[in-house]
């Protein structure tokens, strides 16, 4: 059930960066964040906690949902001194990963957005799409090219 | 009556210390890191995640190390850890049609749109031991070509367009969760699929094999097998919209089974479905075959008395943690139980001897 908010451009952008941060390698994110070298003051609204999310599939890929099993997720929420709230929802059990994601989520809603986009998000996005392309290129090399041998009586 | 007995504590502590030492093995051999297990024993990691029912490769690698490679013990560790996690919610159903496929094959249509992509498969290897692996770990880089950009639609979709295969009815019904509610019978298909996807690979494989050999005959074609990554999205209440919270590698198998029709259904192909965490294709194919066999009732087929059709038999014996827990508990002390049995046998023997003696005296 998507709310109307999900369709606005601002929401679409936020969905995109939160998804990117959730899937990022914690080590790589930390490197880029450390290089950006800004650590905003904040207060916890919800300190990082590790939990599970039940992942669902659909019967036959398109039918009714069923429970496939859980995945580990770490989440937190914080607020910057100006009151901006940032949420971190990241895959795995790394609390620092969730904290950094929440800080970036908060900062991305303010004036630092362009700088963080350039210093952190763009490199993550580029590397992620490069990694995907590398895998897709290896898969493509294993695609079967069928050919039919000439057959017949003559 | 239970009688408390003490005295095992020191022996148990020492046994565990020795276990730790044996786990480490010869210390002149380098210790295995969990990173090495995750990267180089990834199919074992996948099995532990699938049957442990928790997607976390680092934890699965740790469990494999801790269990000395006993995968059922590793699955036990993951299941135990899983119960300690607060549940944040449930994801939206994953869209396997959008999977970034490493592998995608169809045994039914040669020229399927998107193509036959073999991926990193053991198929077509000669199953000869490769002694080079014992010598060094150098590998040549894999070949690459232009990445495919065309969509990779589900094969069953083509049959569906002509009405030749039974439709899946989309719904947003919340499925029952066997980690929250105990199994009860009859079980709906969502419950069966959750049970099968975390069930023991060996058990599901053998049941699937039994259907191929004629017990609940359902000749299955692999309409499609695909392996790759999908995004996992969840509605976040505090945000009011859904975000991607991660991604997971999945194996999906759709079987196409011939079906002559029944009192309730026209002649058409029917489906079996397998979806399993990680690269786990043997399990996914087996799951699809067992799913199809268990659907006999809803398709109006006859019960042929086959084990794979008997949902209570299948679902209550598929879980290797339940099975091993019950199996292995019988090795633990049963001294008092056994004393009672011993007393009973002695008494019966004494009675039997008494009867013989009385009978002889009478003659």
UniProtKB/TrEMBL annotation, chain A:
Keywords: Lyase
Gene Ontology MF: a single term: lyase activity
InterPro entries, alphabetized: Phosphonate_metab_PhnG (IPR009609)
GO biological process: organic phosphonate metabolic process; organic phosphonate transport
Superkingdom field: Bacteria
Protein name per the record: Phosphonate C-P lyase system protein PhnG
Gene name of this polypeptide: phnG
TrEMBL record, chain B:
Keywords carried by this UniProt record: Coiled coil, Lyase
Keyword match rRNA-binding: no
Keyword Coiled coil included in the entry's annotation: yes
Any single biological process term in GO: organic phosphonate metabolic process
Coiled coil: 335-362
InterPro entries with a match to the protein in the record: PhnI
Alphabetized Pfam families for the sequence: PhnI
Residue segments, region Disordered: 142-182
Any one GO molecular-function label of the UniProt entry: lyase activity
Name the record gives this protein: Carbon-phosphorus lyase complex subunit PhnI
Taxonomic classification: Bacteria, Pseudomonadati, Pseudomonadota, Alphaproteobacteria, Rhodobacterales
């Amino acid at each position: 059930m998507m709310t109307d908010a999900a369709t606005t451009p601002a929401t679409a952008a936020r969905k995109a960066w939160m998804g990117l941060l959730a899937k990022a390698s914690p080590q790589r994110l930390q490197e880029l964040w450390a290089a950006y070298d800004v650590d905003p003051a904040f207060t916890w609204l919800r300190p990082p906690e590790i939990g599970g999310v039940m992942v669902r599939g659909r019967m036959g890929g398109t039918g009714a949902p069923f429970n496939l099993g859980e995945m580990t997720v770490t989440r937190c929420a914080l607020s910057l001194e100006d009151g901006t709230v940032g949420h971190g929802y990241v895959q795995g059990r790394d609390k620092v990963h969730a904290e950094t994601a929440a800080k970036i989520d908060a900062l991305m809603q303010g004036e630092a957005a362009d700088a963080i986009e350039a210093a952190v998000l763009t490199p993550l996005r580029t590397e992620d799409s490069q990694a995907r392309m590398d895998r897709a290129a290896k898969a493509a090399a294993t695609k079967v090219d069928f050919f039919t041998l000439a057959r017949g009586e003559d | 009556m239970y009688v408390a007995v003490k005295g095992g504590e020191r022996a148990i502590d020492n046994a565990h210390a020795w276990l730790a030492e044996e786990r480490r093995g010869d210390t002149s051999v380098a210790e295995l890191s969990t990173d090495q297990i995750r990267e180089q024993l990834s199919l074992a990691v996948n099995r532990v995640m699938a049957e442990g029912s928790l997607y976390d490769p680092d934890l699965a690698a740790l469990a494999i190390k801790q269990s000395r490679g006993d995968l059922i013990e590793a699955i036990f560790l993951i299941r135990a850890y899983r119960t300690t996690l607060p549940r944040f919610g449930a994801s939206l159903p994953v869209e396997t049609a959008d999977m970034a496929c490493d592998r995608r094959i169809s045994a039914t249509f040669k020229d399927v749109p998107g193509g036959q992509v073999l991926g990193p498969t053991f198929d077509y290897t000669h199953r000869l031991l490769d002694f080079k692996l014992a010598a060094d770990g150098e590998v040549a880089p894999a070949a690459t070509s232009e990445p495919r950009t065309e969509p990779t639609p589900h094969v069953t979709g083509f049959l569906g367009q002509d009405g030749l295969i039974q439709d899946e009815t989309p719904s947003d019904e919340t499925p029952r969760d066997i980690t929250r509610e105990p199994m009860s019978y009859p079980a709906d298909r969502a419950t069966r699929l959750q049970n099968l996807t975390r069930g023991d690979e060996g058990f599901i494989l053998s049941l699937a094999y039994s259907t191929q050999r004629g017990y609940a005959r359902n000749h299955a074609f692999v309409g499609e097998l695909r392996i790759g990554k999908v995004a996992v999205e969840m509605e976040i209440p505090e945000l009011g919209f859904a975000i991607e919270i991660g991604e997971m590698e999945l194996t999906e198998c759709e079987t196409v089974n011939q079906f002559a029709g029944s009192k309730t259904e026209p002649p058409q192909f029917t489906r079996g479905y397998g979806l399993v965490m990680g690269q786990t294709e043997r399990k996914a194919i087996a799951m699809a075959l067992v799913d199809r066999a268990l659907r006999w009732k809803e398709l109006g087929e006859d019960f042929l008395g086959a084990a794979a059709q008997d949902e209570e038999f299948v679902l209550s014996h598929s879980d290797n943690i339940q099975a091993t827990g019950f199996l292995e508990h019988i090795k633990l002390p049963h001294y008092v139980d056994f004393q009672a049995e011993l007393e009973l046998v002695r008494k019966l023997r004494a009675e039997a001897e008494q009867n013989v003696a009385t009978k002889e005296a009478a003659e």
